[in-house]
Design a protein that fits this description.
This protein is elongated. It has a single domain, classed as Rhopdopsin 7-helix transmembrane proteins (Up-down Bundle). The two termini are about 15 Å apart. With about 250 residues, it is mostly helical.
């Protein structure tokens, strides 16, 4: 409730306050929308299951949850990467910032993030739901997470898991490459600054973004990229809960 309320307040303030009609706050509003939908995809069903004796979900609802979860996660991956470019322009080209980060480009960046996330959902959902399931139907997770669902298949899922792994790695590497390049240029620019006040302002501009990136990407990398031998099922559930709920109001 705190995370949803904080994100809704953020969206409302950015919408009504003309002083916040800037590229940075526009992208933050998109991030808040994604965070809100991200939480609403999994947490309401979790809360119902906590008070219900029958903790079940239909096959169709499970597929919808996988699609929405993958879409929101993918969209956040891309948007956080694109926000690094915004920080690069703000620090390295402050005088040209209004021209470079114009309204059209901001809309294109937001649309690109949503499209990339949707593509992730459209790719991963059919891969997961077209596997034959004929054994145990008890998911060892608090929602329909793809790795947990694939463990219930009664067929060889090595190809599906490989495709999912490649997709997750790409979803991480593309934004991380953009983030790394942007912050490398930012560090180079800050290093050349002679003013301590300028360095402090640059650090303040980038610190919050870096914090969210570290939390979100770190948990996702731990859960989906590292081999299963590196973490236990309970630790995996903890990391999923962490980046599903906690990061959304960081």
């Amino acid at each position: 409730m705190v995370a949803v309320a904080a994100n809704l307040v953020m969206i409302f303030l950015i919408w009504v306050d003309s002083r916040l009609h800037t590229p940075m706050y526009f992208l933050l509003s998109q991030l808040s929308i994604m965070d809100t939908l991200f939480i609403c995809t999994t947490v309401p069903k979790l809360l119902v299951d906590m008070v219900s004796t029958e903790k079940t979900i239909s096959f169709v609802a499970c597929g919808i949850q996988i699609f929405l979860y993958s879409t929101m996660a993918g969209s956040e991956f891309f948007l956080l990467g694109l926000m690094a470019y915004d920080r690069y322009v703000a620090v390295c080209n402050p005088l040209r910032y209004p021209v470079l980060m114009n309204r059209k480009l901001c809309l294109l960046l937001a649309a690109g993030a949503w499209f990339g996330g949707s593509l992730d959902g459209f790719l991963l959902t059919p891969i997961t739901m077209n596997v034959p399931y004929c054994g145990s139907r008890q998911i060892n997770q608090f929602f329909c997470e793809i790795p947990a669902v694939l463990k219930l298949a009664c067929a060889d899922t090595s190809l599906h898991e490989t495709l999912m792994y490649i997709c997750c790695v790409l979803m991480l590497l593309i934004p991380i490459s953009l983030i790394s390049a942007s912050y490398a240029l930012i560090l180079f620019t800050v290093h050349r600054m002679r003013s301590a006040e300028g360095r402090k302002k640059a650090f303040t501009t980038c610190s919050s973004h870096l914090t969210v990136v570290s939390i979100f990407y770190g948990a996702a990398f731990y859960t989906y990229v590292l081999p299963p031998s590196f973490h236990t099922p309970d630790a995996g559930q903890g990391s999923v809960a962490f980046y599903t709920i906690v990061h959304t109001h960081a």
